[in-house]
Amino acid sequence: MPYFRVTTIFCALFFYFQSGISQEKPEFGVISKSESEFTSYEKDTEATAVYLYEYGDNYFEIRDDYIYLITKYHAKIKILEKEGFDYTNIEIPLYRSKKRKEKIVNIKAFTHNGEMKHSVKTSEFYNEEVNDKWTQTKFTFPNVKEGSIVEYEYEMQSPFYFNFTGWDFQSDIPKVYSEFNAKIPGNWLYNRSLKGSLDLDVNDADIVKGCFSFPGTKDDSDCESLKYVMKDIPAFKDSEEFMLSSNNYKSKLEFELSEYKSFYGSTDRYTKSWEDVDKEFKTDKDIGSQLRKKNFFEKNVDVSLLTEGDEITRAKNIYEFVKNHFTWNEKYSIWQGNKVKKAFDEKKGNVAEINIALINLLNAAGIKTNMMVMATRKRGLPKKTHPVMNDFNYIVAKVDIDGESYLLDATDKYMPFGMLPFRCLNYYGRVMDFDNNSYWYDIMPEKSNAVMLRAQMIIDPNEEKLTGMFDLINSGYNKVAQDEVLSTVKEESYIEKLEEEISDDFYITSHEKILKYSNEKKITERFNFEIENLIQGDNIYLNPFVIKFFDKNPFVASERNYPVDFGFPMKYQYVVNIKIPDGYQVKSIPENKNFTMPDNGGVLKLNVSDNTSGTLNLFFTFDLNSAHYPNGYYIGLKQIFNEAVKSQNQSLIVFEKI
Fold first, then answer.
1. Which residues pair with 370 in a beta bridge?
2. CA atoms of 423 and 178, how far apart (whole Å)
3. Do 657 and 612 touch, CB atoms closer than 8 A?
């Protein structure tokens, strides 16, 4: 039987083995003729550098009466263009505790330029402090030029078995060949999974009898010998917009220490059930005990805050109070050092301190509120198979009122009740209900998100200018962003920047916020404006899109191997009424457009028409009806965005003199 627990995604691959793919490990320092003559990578002609070879070997060994995890690494990188020189600066992270630390015990590095070989001198390897838990060994290859091959290998000695975390097959440059090997005694049990969309070319597992001996014990431990290979690995290009963390999509093997069986008979379990985590959280000094401070808050806030109004009114008042009382220090720090009373007194705290204070106040007001742990978009999605607490880096409040649930985060002063900041729109979190059992809960973004512009325009040929008025309406997440702009930027600077973004001939003559058309999730601004230099000869030329929602298509790659994630659905709408100037007639107008993506995933419409009242009406709408699109929708998204950009940049109305 295998010694390891294998997750579902890995099971389908575990017993599959494709022979004929592996290659012998090359001798360090020796460059083949084909490697030397390698000038471009035909599978990715834009690559500035490419891994020709990458090899890792991991095993356990007793040194100085201590069991160490040994990692050996060997890599060759071909530099194809000057932009690839960045890959000649190497950083090797090393973990440390108060008593022990990881260290490099052997390291060599060469730059190959044809038959010439330049070594990195011992004095040129140096260690750098990162923080109290991490250092790194750094060096730079010498004499690098286009066509160079840089090669290095090292051996790392680690006393931390939990730092056997896996292997990154995919990086931001392509790899011709990448091989991962491990020999793990049965005393160590690891959860493992294969992430990403790429398949293994070799997936080999064998049992090696009696491979590990521990002094003073009678029986030798069997080992599982693992070998995984991928070849022709494409670069992971995450430069395009609208994606979750690349950690969700890069092809890699992940290992997580689950259990260690001591050679003397005891067992330490590292992977726990959610029931175990629930119990620990109740008594944890940084989480559980901090959630039991409602007596402190009852004594330190006005009693009316906790008692006046119905539940939803009290919840909204408490939420506004916490937002205004605290200033977020822009730190997450959810697992250690939380002091909610100290943060309350200082009116400043991290995510956990602010939102735990919010939870305490809501519970003090008799409103059922639980803590939800989650991960931000940049962190990656938490595993659902078992608790991995390092997957989580954020805390929010889950409030239940009259059968409705609300997620609240009081770190953002501009965020309306019931909406989470954009950084939190990461699919799901774990609600820690200490009275019952914890459970997964989906994060649903605000649905009504829009930018709408409604304008009226009049052209005066005698004055040779256009005068007009438009209302700019931002709702949902766009309203939050606009609130921050209007609160932090002086109006004069705001107007100047807006004029610069539109054109040199565009002038805003007045601006105001229309309160009667604004609310908690919507803000309406009214602008009066003028445009000059429209008349050329006997014609008037006008692009009616005085404000453009986007000037260029954000999707430029020919293909995309991971989903598109906007975070929330979005609607753009532009409506304008243009009075046909006296003495002129319509010569040309933009063509009407009507595009719909499959499954109604997106809609684009452009319609321009004139009527008997002597006006020209333009209606443009662009709806993105989903927050998330599988990569199969990428081409459709790219096309519909292209049409949206063309509609705004190339729509031209021409009036000719009668």
1. 398
2. 34
3. no
For the chain, residues classed under CATH 3.10.620.30 are: 274-442
Q: Which two tokens stand for residue 618?
A: 């333009």
Q: Which pLDDT value is given to residue 279? A: 84
Q: What share of the chain is helix, strand, coil (3-state, %, to 5)?
A: 20, 40, 40
**pLDDT digits over 47-78, tens only?**
999 999 999 999 999 998 889 999 999 999 99
153 near 99, Cβ under 8 Å?
no
Instruction: Output the pTM of the full model.
Output: 0.85
Handedness of CA 598, 600, 604, 608 (dihedral sign): positive
Tally Cβ neighbours within 10 Å of residue 293: 21
Q: Which residue has the tokens 């200082």?
A: 346
For domain 8-27+52-269, which architecture applies?
A: Sandwich (2.60)
Is 231 a residue whose pLDDT tops 60?
A: yes
Q: What is the pLDDT of residues 4-51, one digit of tens each?
A: 333 333 332 232 233 333 467 889 999 998 898 888 898 998 899 999
Around Cβ 303, how many Cβ atoms within 10 Å? Answer: 9
Q: Could you tell me the pLDDT band of residue 239, with boundaries at 50, 70 and 90?
A: low
Domain with CATH 2.60.120.1130 in the chain: 450-657
Spatial distance between the Cα atoms of 70 and 503, rounded to a whole number of angstroms:
62
Structure token digits, residue 467: 């005068």
Report the topology of domain 450-657: Jelly Rolls (2.60.120)
Distance (Å) of CA 151 to CA 22, 71, 112, 172, 387 = 20, 17, 8, 18, 39
CATH 2.60.40.3140 residue spans of the chain: 8-27+52-269
* 94, 134 Cβ separation under 8 angstroms: yes
C-alpha dist (Å) from residue 247 to 73, 168, 174, 382, 424: 22, 10, 17, 11, 16
Long-range contacts of 277-283 (CB under 8 A, 24+ apart): 277/387, 277/389, 277/438, 278/432, 278/434, 278/437, 278/438, 281/432, 281/434, 282/434
Q: Which residues pair with 398 in a beta bridge?
A: 370, 407
DSSP bridge partners of 395: 373
Q: Which pair of structure tokens corresponds to residue 453? A: 């512009």
Domain 274-442: which CATH number of 3.90.550.10, 3.30.160.40, 3.40.50.970, 3.10.620.30: 3.10.620.30
What does the alpha-carbon distance between residue 528 and residue 511 come to, in Å, rounded to a whole number? 7
Q: CA–CA separation, 262 vs 252, rounded Å?
A: 29
Tell me the per-residue pLDDT of 82-111, one tens digit each, with 9 for 90 and over. 999 999 999 999 999 989 999 999 999 999
- Residue bearing tokens 């490099």: 104
